[in-house]
Design goal:
The chain is of the alpha+beta class and 381 residues long. The chain folds into 3 domains: 115 residues, Acyl-CoA dehydrogenase/oxidase, N-terminal domain (Butyryl-Coa Dehydrogenase, subunit A, domain 1, Orthogonal Bundle), CATH 1.10.540.10; 109 residues, Butyryl-CoA Dehydrogenase, subunit A, domain 2, CATH 2.40.110; 147 residues, Up-down Bundle (Butyryl-CoA Dehydrogenase, subunit A, domain 3). The protein is built from 11 helices and 10 strands. Strand 9 and strand 10 form a beta hairpin. Helix 1 runs parallel beside helix 4 and helix 5 runs antiparallel to helix 7. The longest helix is centred in the middle third of the chain and has 37 residues. The two termini are 32 Å apart. The structure holds flavin-adenine dinucleotide (FAD). The site of flavin-adenine dinucleotide has 21 residues, from strand 1, strand 3 and helix 11. Flavin-adenine dinucleotide binds next to strand 1, strand 3 and helix 11.
Amino acid sequence: MTIYELDHELFRSSFRAFAERELAPHVPEWERAGIMDRSAYLEAGRHGFIGMAIPEAFGGGGVKDFRFNAVLNEEVARLNLGGGGLGMMLHNDITTPYFIEYCTDEQRARWLPGIASGELITAIAMTEPGTGSDLQSIATTAVRDGDEWVVNGAKTFITNGINSDLVVVACRTGNPNDGNDSMSLLVIERGMPGFERGRNLDKIGQHSADTAELFFSDVRVPATNVLGEIGNAFKYLSFNLAQERLSIGLYGVAAARAALDWTIEYVKERTAFGKPISSFQNTKFVLAEIATEIDVTQPFINQCVVKLNAGELSPADAAKSKLWGSELQKRTTDRCLQLFGGYGYMTEYSIGPAYADARISTIYGGTSEIMKTIISKDVLA
Ligand SMILES: Cc1cc2nc3c(=O)[nH]c(=O)nc-3n(C[C@H](O)[C@H](O)[C@H](O)COP(=O)(O)OP(=O)(O)OC[C@H]3O[C@@H](n4cnc5c(N)ncnc54)[C@H](O)[C@@H]3O)c2cc1C
């Protein structure tokens, strides 16, 4: 059963045409450059594919309905936009909600129009060289000095790290012994003195998503750039991580479906021992298992999207969607690649890059092990 209505399908057709025309032809060049061209954000913004949930008064679509984000994720997976898609989805699905929910009126007026138009690219910086899964141990500090906060520290593996203009940075603003209450979110802007970016990191996949280290050395951030209340970062992160995790899980299922479709086409054409690869029992069984896994997973993901829209998606269900969707993506791209034989290992077929791109999905947004920790707390509660 579909969760989509006519508006979503019209949005899908229009994004598909746009992405085939404006994004897909540039993917090879972005993959080689290790970064997506900023102009793609502006084009996407101009066509209404960025900031759908941002109020119309600030140039957004004015519709808070995650099904539109889900449609974009499905199409990005189908077209295998890889890292380019990741940067844009991060901007739409993961960082924009922080700006919509926690900005003051003054901040909304200052930032939302640029976020909706694609002029201001966003990033979120939680992970540090010394800590990723254990978010409570972050060491980046922000110390109040008059009307400013002075930030020192470093972040790593930050998606859109090079392209971003606004970075939501998780900082320690209080005594570490106060635990979660001592963390806050500050928006650090391109060009602030003391804010430096490291090199664009080399990765095994998602090449066109720029991933970088960020360094903060006595960066003086105006108090007007604090996002929400001081000391509330953990509350905000916990709330927004549900949407981030669903986005990754949902993308995982869409990527698995895309891999299955490419593989079905390939095994019907390729022959061995005088027969199509599709005629071997192993091929049939592998495809049957994958199709079953995808079809059994999709209703759960759909249900999570509906719950998210209703404000009822629990951290445990979000974690389940991320755990299952990302693991499904990983094993499906691997099994499909096997059916391509040597051609699967070549970058000219979609399956090879999709396999490499998939590997990160069980790690970022919280590893599969951390998802199990969250789910087990719910199970044992
Ligand atoms: C391409 C890419 C993009 C990223 N984008 C961003 C971004 O935009 N913003 C951002 O803030 N971060 C980003 N990250 C960071 C990502 O979220 C972290 O890498 C991830 O959370 C894991 O943290 P870690 O790398 O420090 O691994 P670690 O925390 O060191 O974990 C290492 C291993 O130990 C396991 N482990 C840790 N704790 C436990 C436990 N309690 N129980 C069982 N096992 C455990 C982990 O599951 C993992 O297998 C990105 C990473 C990559 C590679």
